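Cross-check.
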Amino acid sequence: MQEKHWEKCLSLIKDKVNDQQYKTWFKPIELVEISSSTISLRVPSRFFYEWLEEHYLELIDESIKKVIGKNLKIEYVVSELKAHSKKSEIRNSPQKEIINETKFDNLNKNYRFKNFIPGKCNSVARAAGKRISKNPGDNPFNPLMIYGGVGLGKTHLIQSIGNKISKDNQKSVYYVTSEKFANQFIDSLRENKLKDFTKFYINVDCLIIDDVQFFKGKEKTQEVFFHIFNQLNLNNKQIILSADNSPLSLDGLEQRLISRFKSGLTVELEKPDYDTRLNILKAKIKNENIKISEEIVNYIAIQVDTNIRELEGVLISLLAHATITKKNIDLDLAKSIISKIVKDTNREINIAYIQEVVSKFFNISIDDMKDKARKKEIVIARQVAMYFSKDFTNNSLKSIGFHFGGRDHSTVIHAVQSVNDMIDTDNIFRKNVEEIKKRISI
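Predicted model, tokenized:
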């Protein structure tokens, strides 16, 4: 009987997608079981269910509801092991939902420190998070506010802290977006359950609120959150917040609330540098067992310098296109995907970009290139980067020198002449310069 239910679901889905999409993303799914509140589905890989949730979850939910007659929580089983679950929308009131949740239920178990790739862009925030997870509430970083642009890993990091606290300290941890908090508050007023709402929040050991900038303009919500914040703080409970800007730039929030935000540690997540982007890609590729050449990985890391979400989006899209078309992932496909996902497709070739390409080619850091190091390989890399900065950009010699550790224009002139001399006398060096020029230009 359960199999027939799932077959009906697939039939409804088949009518809404094309044949290739159905064969690729739905035919491989196997039904495990259907209970009163849950449907378990076996899928080939973790990538597979991530793609389903990203692109087809609403369609699956809709089909299940039409066949079963109600919403069910979807669980995915990968290689006989239960993977992370995704809740369908729950029609019960938000207040009932939070009362029934256990301390672990609303944290994404995939968000952990072990798969949060470290780098200069997040080193302070990551270190603070680890410190907090050892002594939640009893540390100098309470509250912790992490801010930064879209797709830089704020949610991943704050939930990693929550998961670590849950595991190591057996503390009650609750993660909630500011929007959901506001909706719960409104429902509690409507249902005359404000005391229950407040009691729930002041009794958690660690409260994590994502995107607090969306409290903007919600005066009553800010007021109740202010009192909850104070009560948690008085009881040495850990508070972790995220926002898209620093507290000073959060318009529309009460000053007394902003003052509380600034009373602990405020730290920024910056855009990932080249090395961090490369490490993120390599970790994702290894985790998903994807076959992709080092040349293409390097190309993606150089071209996609906006945020982590776009970086992973390019990789997932590459794999999806290769799976559907049954073609290998090559440079042309990478260029095509990037042009559709990343806004900055007509990249300006600037000094920072040239430094990234050259440092990667010579396997040295950009900091070494800017430093006073006199090792031969570093000096050559620095001179080559200066050479291309003069060739590809309109920067003055003085400006180029400034970008290389504050060197003067005569150093740049010497570097350009040295590279020209080596091109004339060293065939291997000339080929290396040609290869670097090709990488800068693509």
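The beta strands are 30-34, 38-43, 73-78, 81-86, 144-147, 173-177, 206-210, 238-243, 265-268. The mean pLDDT is 82. Passed to J.P. for a second look.
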